[in-house]
Each structure stands twice: as C-alpha cells, then as structure tokens.
Design a protein that fits this description.
The complex is a heterotrimer of chains A (361), B (176) and C (147).
Chain A (H helix, E strand, L loop, with lengths): L2 H36 L15 H11 L10 H18 L8 E4 L2 E4 L8 H9 L2 H11 L3 H24 L1 H7 L4 H7 L3 E5 L2 E4 L2 H4 L1 H14 L11 H4 L9 H26 L9 H8 L4 H30 L7 H28 L4
Antiparallel strand pairs in A: 1-2, 3-4
Chain B lengths: L3 H21 L3 H21 L3 H26 L3 H4 L6 H24 L11 H6 L3 H10 L3 H28 L1
Chain C lengths: L8 H4 L1 H18 L22 E3 L1 E2 L2 E2 L6 H5 L5 E7 L5 E8 L9 H5 L5 E3 L15 H4 L7
Antiparallel strand pairs in C: 1-6, 2-3, 4-5
The chains are: A mainly alpha (361), B mainly alpha (176), C alpha+beta (147).
C-alpha cells in the first residue's frame, strides 16, 4: 500500500468512528425528545438549546460513576462482555459505502473502508458475533434475569438471522453480487419510466417483500422495540445488562445505538439506493454548473448527504416504531419469525427467481 | 503483501493458545468461548490466504451460529465446574498420552517436511479467481455446475437431520 | 366469562395496523398539544379550597386563637399541640402552638372545628425542608393567605 492509500484509509476510518460516536448522544436526545413529543410531553429541554447538551451531561455522569463489579459475577467475562458487544457493531460499518468514488491525481478513492468481495457475508458474520457479548454478560452476571435475557436474545437472534439472510438473497440475485459497492452502484439504473417519472432500480421497488422481512429482522437483531424481549424492563428488569453500571452499561447502550445506525445504513444500502442521490439533487448539480474537481467534490458531498439523509430517516423510523408498537409476547415473536418471516422470504426468493428467468428484473 | 507473515504468526499463536485453553480450562463456558476464538483465528488465517469467502463463512456458520447453540446448551444444562472435574488421572495414563501426542506431532512435522514444496497450481490461482470476479462468484458457479450432485446430497442430508429433530421433539410433546 | 376479540383479516396482517399506529404517533407529535407544566417557571393553578400549609390567622397583629383545644381534639393525626396561657388582659391564648406537619394528613378538620377562624390551611404546597422540624407558633403566624 502506498502512502496515499494509507492516508485515505486512515481518514475514512477516523471519519466513520467519529461519526458513529457522535451518533450515540444525538440519537439518545432524539429518542427522548421524540418519545416525549409523541406522548404530548416536552422531554429534556433544560440544558443547552432544545436540551441538546443533555446527552453530554449523561456522558459525564457515566464517566464519573464508580466502575465497580458486584461480588458474585465472573469478573473476566463480566468485563469482556460490553467490549464484545461494541466492537462488532463498529466493525460492520467497514464495508458500507457512504459515497461513490472520486479520482484524485489519477488514483481512485472509494468512499468505503474495505470493498470486500464477500461484503454482505462479512456483515452477517460480524453481526452474528454481537450475540456473544450478550450471552457473556447474561451468564457472567450470575443473575437469573440476566440469564433469561441472554437466552431470549440468543434464540431471537438465531431465529431472525435466518429470515434476515434469506430476505436479501433476492437482492443478491438481482444485482448478482454480494459486494455492497456493486449493489449500491446497481441501484442507480432506471427500473422503468412512467412519463416524466423515472423509477430507479432501488431495492424497495424490486424487492418489496424482501424489504419488509429485512426491516422486521433488523428490528429483531438490534433488540429494539417491538422485539426488545432480551431487555423487557417490565418482565425481566432490563435483562442482560441488569448487573452493569457506569461506563460498562454505557458501552451496552452505545452498542445498541451503533447497531441501529448499522441497521439503518444497511437498509439504505440494500433497499434505498445507498449513496444514490435523492430526487432533485441531479438537477441541482447541473444547475450549479461546476467543472473539474469542484464538480466531483460537490457530487461526493451530495452523495454522502443523500446517504446521510436516508440513514437519518431510518434511525428516526427506529425511534418512531419504538414509541408506537408495544412489545411482542415471546411466543408471538417466535411464531412471527419462523412461521411468517421465514416462509415469506423463501417465497420471495422463488418469485425473484421466476421474475429473473422471465427477464422482468 | 509483506505484512501477512506477521499476521499469520499472530493468528497461528492465537489458534494454538486458545486451542490449549479449550482442553485445559475447567469451566465449560470458558472452553466454548475459547473455541470461538479458535474459529476466529482460523478465519483470520483463511483471510490471509485470500479465501475471504471461507473466512466469512467460518465466522458466520461456526462462530456465529453453531457455537452460539453450544453455549446455549451448556448454559441451560448449568454445567458447573466440579461435574467436569474428572479427578487426578493415573501417572501411567499421563505418560502414555504424552508419548502418543509426541508421536502424532512428530508424524505431522515429518509429513509436512517430506511433502513436495512446489505443489502444482490448479485451475484456481489467485489471479484466475480475481479475473472471474472473486471468490464468491467462483465458488457459487462451481457449486451449481460441477458439484451440483454433492451439493444437493448435502442439502438432503441436512433436511433429513431437520426432519429427525422435529420427529424427536414431536414424540416428546405427544407423551406429555 | 371468556370474551374472544374478533380480529379482521387486515388486523391479522399486521402491516396496515402498524401504519395506522405510526400515523397516530406522528400526528400526536406534530399536532398534539404538550400538557407539560414546566414547574419552577409555570405552576398549576389550584383551587382556593386547596388544603396546604397551615397558618394561624391574626387580627391587628394578635392571633385569633384562644387555645380552646378544639383543633387538637378533632385532629385525627394528633399532630397539633397547644399549651394555653393567660394574657395580662385575662384573655386565654396559646403559649405554644405546634404542628407536626410530618404527621398531618391535611384533612382540614381543624379548620372546620375552629370557632374563632384562627387555624387555616393555605394553598401553599411546597413544604419540603432539609431538616426535621415541628412548626411552631412564630412560623405559623406568618399570614399565608386571606381565607
């Protein structure tokens, strides 16, 4: 690797990590204000403009709390667990493209940390590791609620990983690639045109069933309501992180929000065109009438902004759904996973195959 | 790639270290977690060798799914430490086992040393794989053309296993 | 009696119902009226008949109370303690008048029993203190309302 490659790689990694870390306090604020407004309350509005600095106070509180472990826990695994939850959450972002590529001095820079040949498989393999942290925390806490929570989370994650994996097979079949970069590029093509309106080949238009299954599975995988049974405050008093406090708990909290970000980014990349520009941006780019590098940089900026906007929408969607739908019962969750989502994703694969055979897709 | 030997030694050391901890630790859950780490180290080695697909599948299937179920079962059985402590074994057994292990190790070393260094390259050199679109494409093409029969047979085998599991579970349900 | 709720076809197919729910929450968020009272700045308006912190009514700087002992008698929580004394003008008056607010249940019986309109319950509800205290006469004599 040349110095230039090292430099761009470092810049990309630093950018992603910094952005992901900023997402957490902002999302906590959005979650609290959003839920408050939906329930006709106000939410935290005291510290800073609109209460934006509330999260910083929370972070300071977490930092200054005594970092202690209860006497009855298995110390080694107890300390390790939050890290194991957090690290895969960060790792997943490595293969998600957040803009297309730009040519600087004859060298192409992809706005994606690693354009892996096995992109999607990498995401699934890394995402399936997060469950270890939850198992570890549940088991090492030596607490029955924690153990129950981790057992629930294990079975839930395994059940929904199946339908999640199967639901994107359709996308893989259509774009005949598992590279996320290629999938995002492929979605730029036109699907069909109705008069002036051109429908792009976004995943949502060619794979609506796959999208619904994937969306549901992402909710289950990130342990968000309506599928937050591993936590289930009212049943098992916060589940696997019941014995955690101070920064260790904050790490679990961060992991949840980063997982949410990754989920939103995945939905965007697979079903909403990734960095493909939002309608109107192409026109804006032409109107600005730039040339040379300026044009290229503005294009990248627009693409990154489109990606960011789509991801933000889905982050908001996570919050929105959380405060709308109550928690599922455990057997309902399993029924939905195995008896609805799994057959639905299989049907989707079959339909996609038929449509591809008849050259519709 | 001039840095891959370093990574190879790191992953190899990790694999050996965690394998030892799998058999030496007395805590069954700890053993299982060590085994996960062994799979990880293997995945790392596969990735260094350029077999990204195998690396991803290794983590996805073994570390991500199978070991989770292992740990699930261990936690449910609530296997505590004393039940797995077999007590002290006889000194003769220890010596015998040690000798056998040493012989096995020597055989491996001998086999590796005696094998020809320059194994003739097959159809799938790294360059050829790169040209035809990467690991995933090559493997999937092979799977659905040349090796379709073994592939289908494996899936029938798995189906049989699923049917068997369901049958066993149903029978128990019927008794109650 | 077991009542089985009827679910229609669309209800079993969650999606429509979920979208309806999302619409409701979004409507509440965008057009809903917040009901929060931001306490230190805004306060809830209480009725004049609200029973809060006690006070002893005074006319021309002299308490109305004649230490007739009706209020400690009627008090269900037994939180009023009065020691009677005699003024130079042979008038009976309370030397000590203590209310243990920690015991008080704010029933307002004392107010009703008082023949002299002396003990009153004001509308003040912020009574938290940083220490245990039995409120004495000097404190109770502060005029906290105009009942």
């Amino acid at each position: 690797m040349t110095n230039f490659e090292w430099l761009t790689m470092g810049a990309k990694i630093a950018f992603i990590v910094v952005v992901l870390l900023q997402v957490v306090p902002i999302m906590v604020w959005v979650e609290r204000r959003g839920s408050a407004l939906m329930q006709n309350r106000l939410g935290p509005n005291r510290i800073g403009p609109l209460g934006l600095l509330q999260s910083i106070c929370d972070v300071v509180k977490f930092f200054f709390k005594e970092d202690r472990a209860p006497g009855h826990v298995n110390k080694f695994y107890y300390t390790l667990a939050p890290l194991i939850v957090l690290v895969p959450a960060f790792m997943t972002f490595a293969v998600i493209p957040f803009a297309s590529s730009i040519v600087i001095d004859g060298q192409t820079v992809n706005f994606q940390i690693a354009d892996l040949n096995v992109g999607l498989l990498y995401i699934f393999s890394v995402a399936s590791l997060g469950v270890y942290g939850i198992i570890m925390s549940g088991w090492s806490s030596n607490n029955k609620y924690a153990l129950l929570g981790s057992l629930r989370s294990t079975s839930q994650m395994i059940s929904y990983e199946l339908s999640m994996g199967l639901s994107i097979i359709g996308i893989v079949m259509v774009f005949s690639s598992v590279e996320l970069g290629a999938i995002a590029r492929g979605q730029g093509e036109a699907f069909f045109s109705v008069g002036m309106l051109t429908i792009p080949k976004w995943g949502i238009f060619i794979q609506p069933i796959g999208f619904i299954v994937f969306l549901t599975s992402v909710f289950a995988e990130t342990n968000r309501l309506p599928f937050d049974l591993p936590e289930g405050e009212s049943e098992i008093v916060a589940g696997y992180h019941i014995e955690y406090g101070s920064m260790k708990f904050a790490l679990f909290f961060m992991a949840e929000y980063i997982n949410m970000t990754v989920g939103a980014a995945l939905i965007t990349t697979l079903f909403f065109g990734g960095w493909q520009m939002l309608p109107g941006m192409h026109w804006l780019l032409e109107v600005m009438n730039l040339d040379g590098m300026a044009h290229e940089w503005v294009r990248i900026l627009f693409e990154a902004a489109s990606f960011g906007a789509k991801v933000c929408f889905f982050m908001w969607f996570f919050v929105w759904v959380r405060w709308t739908i109550p928690r599922f019962r455990y057997d309902q969750l399993m029924d939905l996973g195995w008896k609805v989502m799994l057959p639905l994703s299989l049907v989707n694969i079959f339909l996609t195959g038929v449509l591809i055979y008849y050259k519709v897709l | 790639m001039d840095i891959s030997p370093v990574f190879f030694y790191v992953f190899a050391a990790l694999a050996i270290g965690f394998s030892l901890s799998v058999i030496l630790k007395k805590n069954p859950v700890g053993n299982a977690f060590s085994l996960v780490m062994v799979f990880f180290a293997f995945a790392g080695i596969y990735a260094i060798l350029g077999a990204h697909l195998i690396a991803a599948l290794q983590v996805l299937v073994y570390a991500g799914a199978i070991m989770v179920l292992f740990i699930f079962v261990i936690m449910l059985l609530n296997a505590d430490e004393p039940s797995f402590d077999m007590g002290r074994s006889h000194i003769g057994i220890k010596i015998g086992a040690g000798t056998l292990c040493a012989i096995l190790f020597c055989t491996f070393v001998w086999a590796i040393k005696e094998s020809p260094i320059n194994i003739p390259a097959g159809r799938f050199t790294p360059e050829a794989i790169q040209a035809s679109g990467g690991n995933t494409q090559v493997v999937s093409e092979l799977m659905f053309s040349e090796y379709i029969l073994p592939f289908e047979l494996t899936s029938v085998l798995l189906l049989a296993a699923i049917v068997g599991a369901v049958a066993i579970a149903k029978r128990k349900l019927g008794k109650n | 009696m077991l009542v089985k709720a009827k679910t229609s076809g669309t209800q079993k197919f969650y999606l429509v119902e979920i979208i309806k729910g999302l619409y409701i929450t979004m409507r509440a968020m965008l057009f809903g009226k917040t009901v929060t009272i931001q306490y230190p700045e805004e306060r809830r308006d209480y009725s004049d008949r609200y029973r809060g912190m006690h006070y002893i009514k005074a006319t021309n700087g002299v308490e109305n109370c004649t230490a007739c002992m009706l209020c400690p008698t009627v008090c269900p929580a037994e939180c009023i303690h009065i020691e009677a004394g005699e003024r130079p003008d042979k008038e009976k008056y309370p030397v000590k008048f203590e209310i243990d607010v920690l015991r008080c249940c704010f029933c307002g019986m004392c107010e009703e029993a008082c023949p002299k309109d002396a003990i009153k319950l004001s509308t003040i509800y912020e009574m938290s203190q940083t220490h245990r205290e039995v409120f004495e006469k000097d404190y109770l004599l502060e005029q906290r309302g105009n009942k």
